[in-house]
Amino acid sequence: MIDTLEKLLRTMAAHGATKFYAKKLASNDNSKNQVYLGGDYSALNILPFGKVDTDSDSKAGSKRDRAKAWLSFYWLDENGIHEAPEAKLILYPKYPEVRLSGFLKRSEMAPSDIMRQRCDGRTLFLGTTPNGRVLAHVVMPGSALRSQLDALGSPPQEGVFIELSVDARAVGDTRGQLLATLGAIHAKSWIASQRLGPGGLAVPYVAANGGGYTLEAELGISPNGYAEPDFLGWEVKQYAVKDFISNIAQNPVTLLTPEPTAGIYRDEGVEVFIRRFGYPDQRGRADRLNFGGIYKVGAPANANTGVRLHLLGFDYEKKVITDMTQGIALLSNDGTPAAIWNFTGILEHWNRKHAKTVYIPSIKRGPPMEYAYSDLVQLCVGTDFDMFLKALAAGAIYYDPGLKLENINSTRPRAKRRSQFRIRHSDLNRLYHQIEETRLIL
Questions:
Q1: Does the fold of domain 254-359+376-439 match that of domain 5-170?
Q2: Cβ distance 67 to 347 under 8 Å?
């Protein structure tokens, strides 16, 4: 029998869990009404999820304004773990809110007797694993586990979730590890420009944009396009400054670099897209078309490309999604979708990768190029897709592409892709609930 909080968390840890939470259930938190996980998307920062689906075959106004994020969900008891294959998060963007659903369906060992009840005082304990599993255990009111939880006083809380730990001192410990690791990098002073190559070995990097690569190499992070945090659950972003006294960012922050998922760009290819909407190189380089510029929601079409940025399936007055099957779109003057980034893909990437981010200033000198990193950083915690969308709708986040097509008159033209969404460093407060400026641990 699992009758102590310590035993429960250690049992979850034995099954791979490294993070632990509890939610005190209300009477409406049951299998019929689903389990309420908050009035924003912050639950997506807590619970690892997989594929995000939309009800695209339903009529507008019924289910197309929601999405389902599938979970690898298991009920845990003294006999082991038992899969709940239909468990998922239901996202209701028009409120917005997130609910847990399907946790009893096709799960023979699920605690149906508890989760079907309508009573206060039940408690749901959750553990999450690095490989994306969610482990769950629920108890009735008056249980020993609930009494021990209440006896903790005021443990840390994120949204509707109470944060727990096998070792109470370890809650939030990744923050200390992060600051100490970055402190060691700062103490090295000037570091030769580099990046991690094949096999995880650092190799020289001669281009002028090596600040991020050099920091990643020092942290042991290989350059990749995976939508996962960089280091101990933290996304690490450096930004160039002239000096460490002012720490004023010289360039905007690149938030996302996703490829379009629909529109001419995806359906007919990047070459067709650039030939239709691109323009001759403005520096006079022959045989080349570019697609660049700044694109903000609400701004008129770009004079060079004839396209504008718009949110399809979005209520601009209420600032909520009305159709999850739509997304961020580049539209031509006649309304043709030149490129679309579906809401579900952007949502999945944003919440998974940006829940906790550290921004560290860097300066450079050379050649040969070298970089140094400040001992004063910003820790940004608590974001969700709703904040991202509102910043996008307000024009704070913008699309800043760098696409080109070379050798356009040859039989083998060469395209370069670079789609990026950016924001000014001074506007980061639009994206996070908490921004802390702190010194590194030296």
A1: no
A2: yes
Q: Which residues pair with 14 in a beta bridge?
A: none
Under a CB-based contact definition with an 8 Å cutoff, are residues 430 and 396 in contact?
yes
Q: Please, are residues 96 and 105 in contact by the beta-carbon 8 Å criterion?
A: no
- As assigned by CATH, the class of the 5-170 domain is mainly beta
Pair 23, 162: CB distance under 8 Å? yes
What contacts 411, CB < 8 A, 6 or more positions away? none
CATH code 3.30.450.40 for 254-359+376-439: no
d(CA 319, CA 317): 6
| Alpha helices per DSSP H over 338-435 | 343-353, 385-393
List the structure tokens of 260. Answer: 């379009």
Model pLDDT for residues 252-264, shown as the tens digit of each residue: 999 999 999 999 9
Compute CA distances 270 → 261, 263, 341, whole Å.
12, 10, 14
**CB count, 10 Å around CB of 136?**
24
203 SS3 class? strand
**Is there a contact between 28 and 122 (Cβ–Cβ < 8 Å)?**
no
| Residue 175 reports pLDDT greater than 90 | no
pLDDT tens for each residue of 197-253: 888 889 999 998 899 999 999 998 876 544 455 688 788 999 999 999 988 999 999
- Count CB atoms within 10 A of the CB of residue 213: 21
The secondary structure element, H or E, covering residue 270 is helix 270-277
- Judging by DSSP bridges, how do beta strands 191-192 and 370-373 pair with one another? antiparallel
* 8 Å CB contact between 405 and 288: yes
Angular region, 347: left φ>0, alpha ψ -120 to 50, beta rest: alpha
Q: Global pTM?
A: 0.86
Rounded alpha-carbon distances, angstroms, from residue 256 to 92, 106, 110, 235, 349: 23, 37, 39, 12, 8
Domain residue spans in the chain?
Answer: 5-170, 254-359+376-439
Half-sphere CA count of 101, side-chain side, radius 13 A: 14
H or E stretch covering 168: none
